[in-house]
Amino acid sequence: MQTxxxxxxQARGERRIAQLLDAAxxxxxxxxxxxxxxNAIAAAxxxxxxxxxxxxxxxxxxxxxLADQYIAALAVAHDQAADRRIAGVPLDDVINQMVDPxxxxxxxxxxxxxxxxxxxxxxxxxxxxxDGLIAIRVPELDPSRRRLIALVTVKIFEAxxxxxxxxxxxxxxxxxxxxxxxxxxxxxxxSD
Amino acid sequence: MQTxxxxxxQARGERRIAQLLDAAxxxxxxxxxxxxxxNAIAAAxxxxxxxxxxxxxxxxxxxxxLADQYIAALAVAHDQAADRRIAGVPLDDVINQMVDPxxxxxxxxxxxxxxxxxxxxxxxxxxxxxDGLIAIRVPELDPSRRRLIALVTVKIFEAxxxxxxxxxxxxxxxxxxxxxxxxxxxxxxxSD
Amino acid sequence: MQTxxxxxxQARGERRIAQLLDAAxxxxxxxxxxxxxxNAIAAAxxxxxxxxxxxxxxxxxxxxxLADQYIAALAVAHDQAADRRIAGVPLDDVINQMVDPxxxxxxxxxxxxxxxxxxxxxxxxxxxxxDGLIAIRVPELDPSRRRLIALVTVKIFEAxxxxxxxxxxxxxxxxxxxxxxxxxxxxxxxSD
Amino acid sequence: MQTxxxxxxQARGERRIAQLLDAAxxxxxxxxxxxxxxNAIAAAxxxxxxxxxxxxxxxxxxxxxLADQYIAALAVAHDQAADRRIAGVPLDDVINQMVDPxxxxxxxxxxxxxxxxxxxxxxxxxxxxxDGLIAIRVPELDPSRRRLIALVTVKIFEAxxxxxxxxxxxxxxxxxxxxxxxxxxxxxxxSD
DNA sequence: GATGAATGAGAGTTCATTCAT
DNA sequence: CATGAATGAACTCTCATTCAT
Lengths: 192, 192, 192, 192
Fold this sequence. Notes:
Four copies of one chain form a homotetramer. Chain A is mostly helical. Chain A is built from nine helices and no strands. Chain A is elongated. Chain A binds chain B through residues 34-35, 148-149, 151-152, 155-156, 158-160, 163, 174-175, 178-179, 181-182, 184-186, 188-189, and chain B through 34-35, 148-149, 151-152, 155-156, 158-160, 163, 174-175, 178-179, 181-182, 184-186, 188-189. The structure holds a DNA duplex. Chains A, B, C, D: It comes from Kibdelosporangium banguiense. Chains A, B, C, D: This is AcrR family transcriptional regulator. Chains A, B, C, D: Residues 14-74 form the HTH tetR-type domain. Chains A, B, C, D: Keywords: DNA-binding.
């Protein structure tokens, strides 16, 4: 009985948090992280600035919360493709299974690009995934070299993502294709 | 000869402009373009804010002036390697002749990375150079596809440049090597 | 009754607005509209610049808010004299009933003169009142000519008001008398 | 022989002064006295700010120099009409001979209106002229009352001048007519 | 929890005026 | 005389954050 109230409170709080993060993602996407203002985010969420600070201690923390959301979404996608992550799968398939969900998640979450630039956590998470995949495919690779390759791979993805997202239709397909071509060429080169 | 007198006046101004641009490059490098403030630039140059505005109408114009400097420096480097830009040269040499001077110029000019992100002019200039080189090596390529490839190449360079510059010694060599590997693999892939 | 709570929040804000407008009127009166600075107004109101901008987007909007106050005060005075605004009243009485309240309001509101110069709204409101009065007294007058006469009347008032306000005692009475003399002579001239 | 050089210098200096005052009048007319900047005036005159300050110690002094020009021009016009300034002349003629040249001079000198507001000297000079005329026509008038009437007359002129100048063709004639009507009615009233 | 008022340092920019050349 | 570089205080306006209610 007494647990009902707390639950409601938590529920309301979580709704608020979701609402604020959605607003933050929109504003980050529109103005960029730096130019985004907490007042604008609060306004976009339809609450007062004070309310925002009841849930987030500062702007940075909102970006990090979004980063966590994106990390979780990527993990889900990654796990769904887990069964094909074994050694024998063609590289093209692996790339598709990494790039396509990532692009989809970035498309569906307006703030993704903006947050990616500022969240070391998100970058690390993605890099870890890539690193793991390379480890499976090229087990003999030196771990530190592998890390470097993973980093480079992620940087390339980060660099081309905005172009992909701002395009649509045929153009988007083209640019996505180019991104995959780069990655395949690079990663094939390593395996040799 | 008669121009000496008028020039003396400009000389001070031109020294100031150089001084201000140096300061701007430093501040851009340290704080990033967005966070850089005109007051900080003026202070770094040892002049008052008003002096800055006698030569530059705003921050953006300073970035563009730096971009022009970098474009000029790149053009010089490019021209010096002109004799080897002919068709038969190995791809590795071409990449070396593009990447090494670019990294050198970026090393010598602190503001390069920061300006690169915000100056369409600088990005276009580099893209044009790359586009031209591809045209020589793979003349049968469709021009619009060639432009896309050039753009991707430049984005990759842009994405990895900060990592190169923030490293030194062996690590820098390693990362530079990785950058070249990516480009070689990608560009070889096209020629097929 | 239920509106009490929400109002309490606005109450502070509305007090601040009144306080800021009072301060603005003082500063406008002292320095003139153009020379008045928002920082000076904020300081005069005992608040920080940021607070001012929470309620007014700029200096102009403060002048307009004051203009609205003055328009309202003039309307009240005008309405109180409404019963004597009928056709048969002597011109002298009409002039007294226009000029005296206007001077009183201008005396009681330090910013009046300064705002009058810059607020088309305030000028229009006063001109409309005068226009209406002339319409009652000289109905056969062409409306566009009537408007012109009203405009001239208001400009004369505006031109002599500062002299009236900066005087006091006997001198003020004298200058006020001169203002009324001008208007009476001019408006009598028209009726002919 | 030695006087040639100084003369040349003076001549050049006076040309500069005229050039600067013309520029100042233009800028005052366009932007108003307060908003006018000395840099803008110097630029409009085609000289450097330093040169401006070689001839005028500050902005105010330029307004005063212009005021002197206008006073001189008004004096010439006044003197030309001197023969009709005697007692018997109809009031309408006197008003015409005051108003018409003043409007002509204001038309021909863009800065007139702007300077009029800020130059006590110019206002006094005009007031003196009017005062003198009234003295001739109504010699029995108490001097201090006469001064007041002259002041009021000049304020009315000042108040309606911008409307006259910003109009043209028929409209200008109309407004000018209204100005004269006001003055005639007022001044006739006094003579009674 | 929620509100919105309040802060105040600091951003970009301007300008009358001075001074070295 | 002329130049134009230099000044620096002052201006308008912003925003992350705090706090009374």
